[in-house]
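Per your request, structure below.
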């Protein structure tokens, strides 16, 4: 059947994980504890609310609902400041080449992200026009590894799940793609993304021949 491609945003299209990290670290430090890059690994693909819950666990802090809501806003305000200056130079290597190739071949392209800031980021880096649909943290009720975000994206581009190819940098995202019955392509380390159908270090390792094979595969 006809194929469709679904991209995660943070860590796949742009390296925003570093800005999320800085914003969470700032909050942690304000609350009087450290937050390390290693701990930040657990935050990839995870919703803002769940991240704050994990952060407060790390710091051993119990919060009232009111405090919790305030800290959610504080973190996001800081994150928005960090991403304010983003431009196309922050698109990860060869991502644009991949999107361009798919566009030229009339392949539907969707975004499937947990972030509520997805659309403004795509606008800032000048990639918004490549996407036929954006499904993000504003549209889902169940977070990855639940497949909801990718199933909604598939429906929006009118491609059956078996014919969708998902690019993801988080284990939760790979698991979401797998339970949606989609082809999962991990971007990052084999050791972390061990459930993926394919793993590449980054898009420079993905050849146009490989994309062509995916597009023409008859398996499903
Ligand atoms: C995911 C990131 O894409 O979006 C997570 O990997 C982040 O780290 C989540 O917490 C939610 O993002 P936002 O922009 O809505 O806070
Ligand atoms: Mg990601």
């Amino acid at each position: 059947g006809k194929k469709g491609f679904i991209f995660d945003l943070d860590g796949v299209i742009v390296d925003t994980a570093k800005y999320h990290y800085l914003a969470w670290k700032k909050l942690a430090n304000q609350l009087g504890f450290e937050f390390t890059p290693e701990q930040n690994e657990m935050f990839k693909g995870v919703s803002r609310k769940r991240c704050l819950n994990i952060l407060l666990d790390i710091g051993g802090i119990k919060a009232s609902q009111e405090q919790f809501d305030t800290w959610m806003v504080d973190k996001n305000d800081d994150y928005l400041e960090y991403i304010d200056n983003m431009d196309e130079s922050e698109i990860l290597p060869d991502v644009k080449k991949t999107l361009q190739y798919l566009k030229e071949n009339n392949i539907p392209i969707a975004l499937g992200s947990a972030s509520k800031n997805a659309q403004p980021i795509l606008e800032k880096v000048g990639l918004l026009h490549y996407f036929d649909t954006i499904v993000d943290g504003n549209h889902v009720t169940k977070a990855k590894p639940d497949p909801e975000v990718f199933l909604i994206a598939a429906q929006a581009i009118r491609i059956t799940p078996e014919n969708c190819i998902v690019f993801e940098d988080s284990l939760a995202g790979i698991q979401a793609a797998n339970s949606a019955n989609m082809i999962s392509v991990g971007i990052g380390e084999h050791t972390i993304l061990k459930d993926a159908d394919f793993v590449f270090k980054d898009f420079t390792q993905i050849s146009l021949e490989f994309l062509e094979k995916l597009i023409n595969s008859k398996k499903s």
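The two ends are 7 Å apart (CA to CA).

Regards,
D.
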